[in-house]
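Final report, Chapter 2: Outcomes

The project's central promise was a pipeline that accepts a single protein chain and returns its three-dimensional structure in a standardized token representation, suitable for archiving and comparison. That pipeline is now operational. To close this chapter, we reproduce one record exactly as it appears in the project archive, with the input sequence first and the structure output second.
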Amino acid sequence: MDSFERLGVWWLPDEPDRDVAGVLRWSREEGVRLDLVGRLQEPETSNLFGREGLPHYSIVHGMLKDKVQRSMDRAVTLLGCQVMRDSGETSLPSEDVRATIALLDHYFTTTEPRFDHLKLRFDYLWDWAGISGFEHREVDADFTRWSMSWQLPDYLSASGIDNETITLGLGRKENLSIKPIRGLEEFAEIVVEVAEPLTIDELGDQYLRPIQNLLTLGVDYPVQVTSVRLSSPDVLAVTMDGTVRGRDYVHMLRQPGPHTVAPRRYQPYAHDMLFTLDDYESGWPQLIPTWLQLQDKLELAGDVFFGTRYAPASYLETRFLSIAQAVEGYHRRCFSNEDIPAEEHSRRLEEVLSAILEQHLEWAGSKLKYANEPSYARRIKELIKTTDPLLRQLLGKTSRFARAAVQSRNFYTHLKQESEDAVARGEDLFWLTEKLSWLLRVRLLLDLGFTHKHCAELLERNRAFRWAVAARPDTKNS
């Protein structure tokens, strides 16, 4: 949804007769903001206080004014509202309120409403999916007449890991007025249907964020959510005469986060993307459950990695440490986390502890707690071995690349190191970070089921990867 600013009236659910005029504003950059002319509660009656004694309202209801008809016609529920500024003791009291979530077109009376349907739109989803209902047919060779038709394509349906249904399809917006410009715009949309209603946070963690990460990996650019709509059996569409037409959807707006700050870029093409839906031979029905299982397995390691994609403007050292952490976390979740077999390590540990004085056993035990974990260098070498030879041209010699990654991670983590000869700085650090990022991206492609041969074709097509290889970026001593 685009940014907007609408006048309305606002009240607390338990005080519907005490309404206050105010303007609701929303944008991706600033989130949900409500500027009130007046107060929803007098200061002495506010029973929930947030920062600096300013009131916190769990739920606020409102009605927005229609721009065309000049009438109040759109219901709004604001959740998690914190008063950020109060005018104080003036003749014209006012409150500046920030809401965590805004739900349009329905009134909710609980702070955690549950939904069983989720409709999502993303930047570049239509480009990545490569589906269209348009068919263009030339009528005259000289282009003086032409015809175009549109037919809704079949929906692509997949089952998730909990037997939920996740569908990819098209929608359309029509402009059939008498104005000179007429037309029809199609858009791609993903619909999630779950058996048991979930809270907004649960839907976000289990579906919205993983799907967004999948698209970001495929498009090879931070993908933004452009529309979120929610539905449940309690949300019904009612006509002016009171007739219930069936299930309806509410629009959700929320405060900006790391998944909403990336700027939109130019129109992407296939050579800008890492892979498209057409590139995945098993198609949507297999892609979705495979990715959801992988995201569930990766847990925070995946969030750390994709967090670097959504916030690329951070300090280079911070981005490097985040990707270095994601590499270690990925290896922990997807590879063996033992240096030697557990039984062999237990015998080795017993022999070591038996030679230590009793008063030092507790200290020694704490120091040796993680002694059987692979070193960071070994983790990197194992990841490279599984991707070889896909990244050989980019990474260079494995031992030198691993050494630069280890020493740089140790230096920027502890800010002290005996030897700094392999520590990357400046441009070297940038390319070391890029190389680690490509290592993870290729590993995720392999986890999705792409073969080494197919991955090589995708990398050869990708403009950013070809540019990185052509630049021959070598970290220090690699």
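Archive annotation: The longest strand covers residues 183-199.
This record, like all others produced under the grant, will remain available to the consortium after the project formally closes.
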